[in-house]
Design a protein that fits this description.
The complex is a heterodimer. Chain A is an alpha/beta fold. Chain A is 38% helix and 25% strand. Chain A contains nine helices and ten strands. A six-stranded mixed sheet of chain A has the order 6-7-8-3-9-10, with helices on both faces. In chain A, strands 2-1-4-5 form a four-stranded antiparallel sheet, covered by helices on one side. The longest helix of chain A is centred in the last third of the chain and has 16 residues. The two termini of chain A are 35 Å apart. Chain B is an all-alpha fold. Chain B has one domain: MetI-like fold (Orthogonal Bundle). Chain B has eight helices and no strands. Classes of the chains: A alpha/beta, B mainly alpha.
Chain lengths: 241, 219
């Protein structure tokens, strides 16, 4: 589904990605772990061209989206993205947050979009909040809203950029549960996370990034149970205490 | 006694002040927004960004020179440029608009820059184009940042139109000069003018406050 080849990305002098290649298959759940500054968020943000790589290619559903002539908006509709800081739209109610893009881009009627939105809100337990503004929601509720807002566009893949890092501890569980349900239903997902237990539980594959490259890749059992790369061992020994 | 005899020109002066300020702030907002977008534009030939440079120069010159000087400048320039428009009302109005646009450009720009960049990222990730992101996500949030400052700009402009009395445009201060000169009651007419200005500026501040509270529903 997403094939990344030899991706390089620098911010000014700082080279953040030093040749990343990876193939994410349909239906696969891939977690990306690694220390801060290892390039894992940048890697994820390159996948939908929020960051433009200097070189390398990203083939998404057969199209190299790094090419300049590609209409990136079209492809982004197929890739949902979830941010650390939710980025829900504060000037819209909960339901407007969800229906805006389907109505604007997919030209859905208001009724159709709202019907779909209500189904999604029920799925994440926010149906009673439909007419609230986001300021009245907790962090966990905002993140669940952000997830269904992305789902309303019926994406083929979901990209999660540290979805629980900005949450109070007691709200982490509710968001992880939503993501778990989602991938159980077959959603392809790439998840940058610090929640090792969660990565171990939901992933088909775990990527360990270090110094701008994928230092090790394997099943959760391999990575967490029997890491081969000394950097992976060192990292895991620090986070799994 | 002063008021009974001269209330008509004073009211007329008030009306002209309000009308002039509203026209200036309205067109100032229109042109100021254009200049703000020029300043934010990334369009460039190599490293040189012509739109950005032009907007920056415009803002620096207009904010860095006295308004009175600018009024004189347009007073002499406009008829020289377009002889058919030899009317100080037009020249001075244009000068005030040109000046206001420079201030408004910075208001609009900072209002837009103050919107969390994550908002644009989220919108683009949903598949919105750059212009859809601007109109649906950034502008509605920026308006809340811009509106209070625009209220201040209108208050400023209500007062700054008094400089137009140099050219007797008929606003409050022009009337004061005429009535004060005719009656020799300078202090009294100045106090009355001050009260009229205060009534206007206080009303605008009040209106902006009400409107702001209505906009604040969502945050």
């Amino acid at each position: 589904m997403i094939k990344v080849e030899n991706l390089h990305k620098s911010f000014g002098e700082l080279e953040v990605l030093k040749g990343v290649s990876e193939h994410i298959k349909k239906g696969e759940v891939v977690s990306v772990i690694g220390a801060s500054g290892s390039g894992k968020s940048t890697f994820l943000r390159c996948l939908n061209m929020l960051e433009e790589p200097q070189s390398g290619s990203i083939i998404f559903e057969g199209v190299d989206i790094t090419q300049e002539k590609v209409n990136i908006d079209k492809h982004r509709q197929k890739m949902g993205m979830i941010f650390q800081h939710f980025n829900v739209f504060p000037h819209m109610t909960v339901i407007e947050n969800i229906t805006m893009a389907p109505m604007l881009i997919k030209k859905k009627s208001k009724e159709e979009a709202e019907e779909q939105a209500m189904k999604l809100l029920e799925m994440v337990g926010l149906a009673d909040k439909r007419d609230e503004y986001p300021r009245r929601l907790s962090g966990g509720q905002k993140q669940r809203l952000a997830i269904v807002r992305a789902l309303a566009m019926e994406p083929d893949v979901m990209l999660f950029d540290e979805p629980t890092s900005a949450l109070d501890p007691e709200m982490v569980g509710e968001v992880l549960q939503v993501i778990k349900n989602l991938v159980k239903d077959g959603m392809t997902a790439v998840i940058v996370t610090h929640e090792m237990g969660f990565a171990k539980e939901v992933s088909d594959r775990v990527l360990f990034m270090d110094g701008g490259v994928i230092a090790e890749s394997g099943t959760p059992e391999q990575i967490f149970g029997n890491p081969q790369n000394p950097r992976t061992k060192e990292f895991l020994s620090k986070v799994l205490y | 006694m002063l008021m009974t005899k001269y209330y008509q020109p004073l009211l007329k002066g008030m009306a002209i002040t309000v009308r002039l300020s509203c026209i200036v702030v309205f067109f100032g907002l229109v042109f100021g927004t254009v200049i703000a977008f020029m300043k934010m534009s990334n369009f460039g030939i190599g490293k040189f960004k012509p739109l950005n440079a032009l907007a920056t120069a415009y803002i620096e010159v207009l904010r860095g020179t006295p308004l009175l000087l600018q009024l004189y400048f347009f007073y002499f320039l406009m008829p020289a440029l377009i002889p058919a428009l030899d009317d100080e009302k037009i020249s001075i109005t244009v000068a005030l608009i040109v000046n206001s646009a420079a201030y408004v450009a910075e208001i609009v720009r900072s209002g837009i820059m103050a919107v969390d960049p994550g908002q644009a990222e989220a919108a683009r990730c949903l598949g919105l184009s750059q212009s859809q992101t601007m109109t649906k996500i950034i502008i509605p949030q920026a308006v809340k940042n811009i509106l209070p400052a625009m209220g201040n700009e209108l208050v400023m402009m209500l007062k700054e139109t008094s400089l137009a009395s140099t050219f007797y445009l008929g606003e409050i201060m022009s009337q004061q000069k005429i009535i004060g000169g005719a009656t020799y009651l300078q202090i009294e007419t100045l106090i009355i003018s001050a009260i009229l200005y205060l009534v206007l500026t206080a009303s605008v501040s009040k209106l902006v406050g009400i409107y702001e509270r209505r906009l604040a529903v969502s945050d």
